[in-house]
Amino acid sequence: MRGNYTVNSGVRFRMLTDDQLQELYDGVLHVLEYTGLEVHHEESLEILKKAGAWVDGNRVRIPSYLVRKSLELAPRSFTVFSRDGNPENNIHIGPGRAHFGPGPTCPNFIDIESMDRRPYIKSDVPNVAKVVDALPNVDFCESLGTVNDVHHDLGALYEFAGMFPNTSKPIVAWSYDKYDSAGIHEIAVAEAGGQEAFEHRPNYIHYCEPLSPLVSTGEALDKLIFAAKHRIPLIFTPCPIAGGTAPVTAAGIIIQGAAESWMGLTIAQALQPGLPFIMGGVFSVMDMSSMILSYGAPELSLMMAGLTELAHFAGLPLWQTGGCTDSKTFDEQAIIEGSLSVYFSALTGGDLCHDVGYTESAMTGSVFQLTAMDEAIGYARRITRGIDVNEDTMAVDVINNVGPNGHYLREEHTRRHYKTEFWYPNICDRRNYEEWVEEGKKTMKDRTYARVQDILSTHKPSPIKPETEKVIEKVLVEAEERVKNS
Amino acid sequence: MSEIYEQLSTAILEGDASKTPRLVNRGLKQGISPKELLDNGLIVGMDEVGVRFKRGDMFVPEVLMSADAMSAGMLILRPLLVASGAKLLGKIVMGTVKGDLHDIGKNLVSMMCEGAGFEIVNLGFNVEPDVFIKAIKEHQPAIVGMSAMLTTTMRAMGHTIKAIEEAGLRETVKVFVGGAPVDKEFADTIGADGYGSNAPGGAELAKQLVGAA
Amino acid sequence: MQRRKTNYLVNATPTFEVLSQDEIEAIYYSALTVLYETGVRVYAEEGIQLAYSGGAIIEDRTDDSALVKIPPWLVDKALATLPGKVVTRGPDRKYKMELYKDAITFGPGSDTPFTIDPYTGKRRRATYKDVKNFARLTQALPNLDFHMSLGIVQDSAVGTYDRWQYLAMLEGTTKPINITAVDLDGLKDQLEMAYIRVGGKDEWRKGPLFSLYIEPVSPLSHSEEVIQKLIFATDNEIPFVYTPCPLAGATAPTTLAGTAVQALTESLLGIVLSQLRKPGAPMIIGGLMSNMDMRTTVYCYGSPEMALLSAAYTQITKWLGVPMYETAGCSDSKMFDEQAAMEASMNIATAALVGGNMIHDVGYLEQGLTSSPDMMVASNEIISMVKRILKGIPVTDETKALDVIDNVGPGGHYLDHDHTYNRFKTEIWRPDLIDRQVWENWESAGSKTFRDRVHDRVVEILEAEEEPLLDENMYKELRRVCELADERHKSEELDYNMFG
What we know:
The complex is a heterotrimer of chains A (about 475), B (about 210) and C (about 500). Chain A is an alpha/beta fold. Helices cover about 45% and strands about 10% of the residues of chain A. Chain A has 18 helices and 20 strands. In chain B, strands 2-1-3-4-5 form a 5-stranded parallel beta sheet, sandwiched between helices. The longest helix of chain B is centred in the middle third of the chain and has 24 residues. Chain C is about 45% helix and about 15% strand. In chain C, a hairpin with a 6-residue loop joins strand 5 and strand 6. Chains in contact: A-B, A-C, B-C. The interface between B and C is medium-sized, with 28 and 32 residues.
């Protein structure tokens, strides 16, 4: 027995000190107050003006007290619920918890059978959702692609309609415009049992994107306002490129990107105080030879870690990025880049880490990458869970009983701990060489392929309510009608 | 009758070392022969353990609990089987060879072989060739098992086999070897009868060597 | 304008910890309990006497061993003289391995029986040529700071392979080496070889040419050979790694904290003996600490528990003030594939984050049974990426770039701004084998996978023409030591070739 004993529950990781975070925070307030942003949205300009912002045409400058008030209003901790009431699939956003899921809008997809790259189509959506639903370390769903074989204005709607029945994990819904948003919301509300029920237990998150540098577009704000009015938890996530649309330095890009998010925050909190608001997004470097935004660069992990700590310092959850790659194929590079970003995401406790399953710098979605990353997340989570140090785990008596040259295989202590103390892989292979040869020298790629096929042929997601199915049909018919006339 | 077999194999599978001997005694009281209890109950259970372990559905501590249950049952059955003249799997003399203190692999194989129904004579680690020879003479095992973790001590396996030959005992025993740096080719080179790439494989191999699998 | 802020704490790098300060202490004091009450078994009279003369309790004597129990005060006394910084240098004196709190160096592991042939891709027993090739890879890879053999030379005599192994490494690299020795005689020969290579004992003192790997056996067992090596190394100013390889669940408690307690007990015995023999003798502790996979019985080299426990143990060594022998760049996969990439990425990142000092086993596959040139080259790239993250985020007026943001303004861009131009080369990590081309260019360049590119690099390094690192006379002199050893130990060999 000892006193004054402080333990680490999990591991502890810090990219920046509080002094450094205070300086970044002050930098964001400085940009919002002195440089300001362009806001291309009349209703938002009105809201901002009324709240106390300085509006000059489209240029909006926000005094720091107003930003701090908005930060104060937004919750740090809240829950997004599974659509079927399964508590295992709820997401509790709050300090020290990292969640993972795919991203949206890749034009291409890795075919589930042939593993070839081709355009993303409508029938891919349910497969992605099923894989998400089955993977133990993936917590929320996005579609991994933009549907190419429907009217181009309706891609987002078809994605949601395809995902919602095939996973009870919360969906992060992306949309083109406020019409999509309305359709999506109608489906989610039907399942929740009405708007009021939805507000008490929201079952999806809405996603929109401002432009870098420092522009809030009309479409983004349309969606933001829709979400705020309907009290839908909101992600407002810029995608600045260091050296392209943002300063090349990590501190600079973090400040600029946060300013872009906090403009959205200020509008949202003015309209709907206490709206769950998640700042974002994808902060990385431009590869100076291919000019792509790198989804595998070490700077992605670095900048996202800094951004996460700034968000938490300011009291907001973060839309993290990881599990993605610049590789064109399922290879070691894809796994190195994905593993490192997933790991750092887990270390920072970045609340919702998205883009798991992106390949080719976000041009191609892959459930194989997603499934391999599920394994990497499991691995990372075992590390971040840390080590329990107490009298039982230090096992002094057990060591004494076993003594020099003994072994622990038959100890009761071993039997009690081996299942929880050790992580057991799903895809990684630990058999000896002879057995591995006997089984056909399979690589991780082979085993990942097999796992995906196994999930798709056996996994049964919990169904949605029959009445929601009807609502989905109706929403799609109405939407087709609308685009036909436009 | 089939009920007791099933209960026995289940007790083995669940690694229940207190229930197994009770069931063995009950079976004997019902007039079932020791041989039948062994073949239709205990061994059926251990075979299933082997299948499940290989599939990845069972963990080492569970397998060892099953092996313990098996041993507890055999404690009652062995003398009866001997008395009835039934053929037993026999003894294995096990040791980690001279110069090597890495004992865990050999211990694991020993436990697995014990679970398969063998009687184990465990010589420990850093075992000189003449200690092996003395044990062969004393225990008259069916098999000698040797383990090494280093290439230098792998050499000691070769020396030990040669010593067994020179003592005129090589024909009386089968020899199997194992250990991380050991492979089939090496086992053949030094004239061993078999090589096990891991502990469950070792138990399987031991059964093959005595013609029981 | 005041540019430098006061009262301002900076993370120049990220910080990472597994254990709290209290947890480190708890593990240490538990290890002292085990060392005092359970004791460790020592199989060498010299070691038993050394411990006894210092104040240890000797019990349960057998023909060849005794149980040695060390009182806590004796450990304190030993720790007081234990150096916190250990340095070795390569034959090319510019290559240094400096180990101290939070200093990070990377290198391979040693003595794998098998290797993957760089040309056929087949797994086979390692040879002299492989060991030389691995040394050449370390020489060529910028992120590897020290070398270990990776393979075991198995086309020489078995009992003297360590001298040939050292010769093969000296032929391939001028970086510092961590050697293994089959026994005391092997260690003496290699020291002689090192003196030949570096030019005598005085040169050695300026920076020992090698450190020595010594491995007691878990649980709590210290063989005669281990103690002999420890004493010889201590007497001859050879820094040594005293590293048990506890296997959680098999040769150590299943709980990682328990494994740390046991490993520390084992290492503390080494610390006490070395400091009793010669206060100030340089040592490195730590080693491979991992778990047995309870489904397959293998000793995991790629598990998260390995990375986690090694990181926790690193913190303990930092607290004790002794350099750590960390582990990373290794995998349980049977070939260099995506699994190997995943396991290496996370264990390299963890070892670097926690500040593990002598991070070894880069290039290991298959639970340390097989070494892979591909794995080595790929790990070099991963280390490079992780080092970029370790540079952290400087927060200064310059990097915050508030004026630049203001200057560019909404809707502008930074591509041709001086702030970008002056910094992009240092701010943006440049990949070597990582590919970032757009699809069309990648496809037209042959759709190569990472494995293809890694392999091309391996071949490129191995086929590069190089001046020999050893001149003919020195080579002959070194070879002579090996041949004399073969001669002396001839009678111990089998009368046939063990490896076919």
